[in-house]
Amino acid sequence: MVQKKNGPPQGDPPPDKAVEPKRRGRPRAYEPEVALGKALDLFRSTGFAATSLDDLSAATGMNRPSLYGAFGDKRELYIKSYQRYRDNARAVMGDVFSNDWPVRRQLEQIFATALDIYLSGEEGPRGCFTVMTAGSEAVADPDIRAMVQNALAELDKAFAHCFRRAKEKGELPADADPAVLARLASATIHSIAVRARARVPRQELEAIVAGAIDMMVGKR
Amino acid sequence: MVQKKNGPPQGDPPPDKAVEPKRRGRPRAYEPEVALGKALDLFRSTGFAATSLDDLSAATGMNRPSLYGAFGDKRELYIKSYQRYRDNARAVMGDVFSNDWPVRRQLEQIFATALDIYLSGEEGPRGCFTVMTAGSEAVADPDIRAMVQNALAELDKAFAHCFRRAKEKGELPADADPAVLARLASATIHSIAVRARARVPRQELEAIVAGAIDMMVGKR
DNA sequence: TGATTTTTATACTGTCCCGCATAATATAAG
DNA sequence: CTTATATTATGCGGGACAGTATAAAAATCA
Hints:
The structure is a homodimer.
Chain A: H1 32-46, H2 53-60, H3 64-71, H4 74-97, H5 103-119, H6 129-136, H7 142-168, H8 178-197, H9 202-217
Helix pairs in contact in A: 1-2, 1-4, 4-5, 4-7, 5-8, 5-9, 6-7, 7-8, 8-9
The first copy, chain A, binds a DNA duplex through helix 3.
C-alpha cells in the first residue's frame, strides 16, 4: 500500500500527454523535446568531451542553469541525448525491420536508412552515436557502457530475426546461419558508420553495402 | 651545389642509426621513442579531447616544455602518436599479411593479432586508434582525416591482396570477389574494434571472427 | 493588488587548460 | 676555467570550463 492511498477505486484521471496542466510559475521559454534534440545534434557532431556547456547552451537556446534544471549535469544530458537517439533510431529502423518484404529488399532499405542517419549533419557526417560512444565514454563509464552493449545487442537481434524469417520463407539456403549473418550485417553497419565519419563519399559506402548484401543473401 | 661543399669525395660517414653523435648541451632525461609510446598509450585509452597535457606530462615523465620541444603542441603529438601506432600496426600485421599460409589460417592469424591489439591495455581495452579517431577528430581535421582514410584504405588493400592471392591459388571459388571479401573483412575488424571498446568479452569477439571467416572462405 | 511559485538571466568561483617565458642545470667546445 | 649549447624545471597568464549562487522576470493564486 505504498503507491495508492485508500482513495476511491474509480480510474485515475488519464495522464493526457500534451495537455498542459496550467503550470504555476513563469512559463519556460523552451520546449524540452526540441532542446534535447539540439543537444543530441551537437553531441553527435563533436562528441562528449569536446562539447562544452556553453556550446550546448547556445545550441539549445537555454542558459546553463536552465540546462541543469531540465536535464541535470553534462553527463546526464549526454545520456538523455543518447536515449533520445536510440528511441528515434528504433522508431525509424523498426519500421523497416518489421516490414514483410523479401530479405534483399529489406536489407537494402535498412542500410539506406542507416546511411541517411550517418551522413546527415550540417557540419559534416555525424556517424553513429553508439559507435562514437563506444570509442569514447563506454570503457570508463559503466552506465553508458551498458547502453552501448544494449544497442549493439539489439541491432544483432534485429538482424538475426530478419534472417531467421527469411530462412523460414525459403529465401536463404538451409545451411545459412542467421546469427552469423546478423553479426556480419551489424559489422557492415559499424564499418559504414566509421567510414562515414571519415567523410568517405556515400557512393563508396553504398558499394560496400551492395557487396555485403550479395555476400549475405547471394548475388541477385 | 647546395648540399655538398667542395669537400673531399670520399664516402660520407655512414649515418649510423643508434650512434649518438656527441650532442652538445645537457643530455635529455627521456628517450623520445618510449615517451611517444607512453603518449600513444594514453591517447588510446582516453582519446584526444579528454587527455590533458598534464596527463601526458605525467605519463611520459617529460614536463610540458620538453613535450613541446620534442613533439610540438597537443595536436602534433596526437598525430605523431597516431603515426607511431600505424607504423607499429603495419609492422605487426604486415608479417601476418605477407606470409604464405592458407587463407583460412592467415585470416585466423590476422584477426587474432587485431584482437590482441584492441584488447590490450591496463585501464581497459583500447580498441583501434583509427576507429576512435574517425569518431572524434577525423570529421573536423583534414590532416587527421587523411590519415584515417589512408589507414582504412590500406587495410582494405591488404585484405584484397590476401583474397586475390588465395583465389589464384584456388582456395576460393572462381566467382569470389576479392574486393568485396576484403571490405567484409575490414568491416569485421571495425566491428570487433567497436565491441572491444564496449568491453564485450574476447570469447564473443572470437565467435564473431569465426563466423565471419566461415562466410568469407567457406565453412571448414 | 500583493504573495507565491517557477523559470530566466547574470555573474561568480575554483579548477583545469594550453602554450610560453624565464631561470636553472648539465654537457661539450675553446 | 670560461663560453656556448641544449635541455630541464618552475611557474605564469589568459582563457575556457563545469557547476552554482543570486537576482530579476513572468506567470498563477488569494
